[in-house]
Amino acid sequence: MQDTQIATFASVKTIQIRNVPDGVHAKLRVRAAAAGKSLSDYALGELERVAERPAASDVLRRARARSGSVPAEAIVEAVRAGRDR
């Protein structure tokens, strides 16, 4: 084995998931087969997809930082004015 291959194998991490309910395992196995993948490859793809999404706390923080320049009171007044027409 070449040194680069050894280094690659050494940097790969393993995750073991215990107590997977039978129904969840069966659904994932079916989805993996439909995708033409092993269960392990399918699960890894799903983990990668989830890991790429921003955390909910980050999304909320960014949303709060983007608060509009219109005060809430002005919005309430505009809605009430529209209803009073």
From TrEMBL:
<protein>
    <recommendedName>
        <fullName>Antitoxin FitA-like ribbon-helix-helix domain-containing protein</fullName>
    </recommendedName>
</protein>
<dbReference type="GO" id="GO:0006355">
    <property type="term" value="P:regulation of DNA-templated transcription"/>
</dbReference>
<dbReference type="Pfam" id="PF22513">
    <property type="entry name" value="FitA-like_RHH"/>
</dbReference>
<feature type="domain" description="Antitoxin FitA-like ribbon-helix-helix">
    <location>
        <begin position="14"/>
        <end position="50"/>
    </location>
</feature>
<dbReference type="InterPro" id="IPR010985">
    <property type="entry name" value="Ribbon_hlx_hlx"/>
</dbReference>
<dbReference type="InterPro" id="IPR053853">
    <property type="entry name" value="FitA-like_RHH"/>
</dbReference>
